[in-house]
Design brief:
Length: 289
């Protein structure tokens, strides 16, 4: 069965939770499971390069019936081989590769050429979208709260503040109405001019970040994803109106459509000493209306 030669077209960046496509390819994977590739899908997969937002939950329906989609990962096709998830050795968008969403199912694979309806669990998607939007806002608020900790000019974020978040981030995990970001403050960040003494009072930093988050939520503002094309490998940016400013961050996930959908976004910070430096954990909670 030939492998697809064009990227999967993805509908989830626009907020879609249902899609109708065609089965292009099935591939057996470990555990008696099958990776199903469609021409188009509304199902958000775990991104190989930056696995912050989990896969959607939902179902795949063909003439042969409805079955749960157990997982979904991004994959790449090169030289007649499909590389899935962690086995994908290149970044999405690498020239000469085709990038696809692989829907993981159990049981007999659907027929190639069959029409396939994808239906995403809307409540779970909405909760992850709230968590992801809040995660970006919390990062921007943290950058503001730490702006005075820099002793020399540093690269800046999309609001023009020193980019602590992108310079120090180690891991980001998005959940339902929440996220956890882990930052490492070591020698390289200190060399860039970051003074770690400010982390002696994490509650004070959190209080400043929370003031900004509360003001942004109270003001409302459009949130969206900008993209040039519907292909999986096309560049996508999260955009958000924040009063008179607007933020723009590369992002592959899903989001709410306006800040007025939030009742509140708050962060809590903890700092621990680790070998060679300190580790800052930011836990973000988002309540929606
Ligand atoms: Zn994102």
């Amino acid at each position: 069965m030939p492998l697809p030669e064009t990227d999967t077209l993805i509908a989830y960046p626009d907020g879609a939770t249902t899609s109708t496509g065609t089965v292009l390819h099935n591939e057996s994977i470990d555990g008696g499971r099958t990776a199903v590739i469609l021409d188009t899908t509304a199902f958000h997969p775990v991104d190989t390069a930056w696995p912050d937002q989990p896969a959607d939950r939902g179902t795949l329906t063909t003439g042969a019936g409805t079955r749960p989609i157990l997982d979904a990962v991004t994959g790449g096709i090169h030289d007649g081989r499909l590389h899935l998830g962690a086995d994908l050795p290149v970044r999405t968008g690498t020239e000469g590769w085709t990038f696809v969403v692989a829907h993981i199912i159990e049981g007999s694979p659907p027929e190639v050429g069959a029409t396939a309806d994808v239906r995403v669990d809307e409540g779970y998607r909405a909760a992850l979208s709230a968590g992801h939007t809040a995660c970006h806002l919390a990062a921007l608020a943290l950058d503001i709260a730490l702006a005075d900790a820099w002793t020399k000019p540093a690269p800046t974020d999309s609001l023009g503040n020193p980019a602590f978040d992108s310079l120090a981030i180690q891991r980001s995990v998005i959940g339902e109405h929440r996220s956890t970001d882990i930052y490492r403050i070591g020698k390289s960040l200190r060399r860039k001019g970051f003074n770690p003494a400010v982390l002696d009072d994490p509650d004070a930093i959190a209080a400043t970040a929370n003031q900004h988050l509360a003001a942004w939520v109270a003001a409302g503002g459009k949130v969206g994803i900008e993209r040039d094309a519907p292909a999986l490998s096309a560049r996508r940016n999260w955009t958000c109106e924040l009063g008179l400013e607007s933020a723009r961050i590369p992002c592959g996930g899903t989001h709410l459509t306006n800040l007025d959908q939030f009742a509140s976004i708050t962060v809590a910070l903890t700092v621990v000493d680790v070998e060679g430096g300190r580790e800052l954990t930011m836990n973000t909670s988002a309540r929606t209306r």
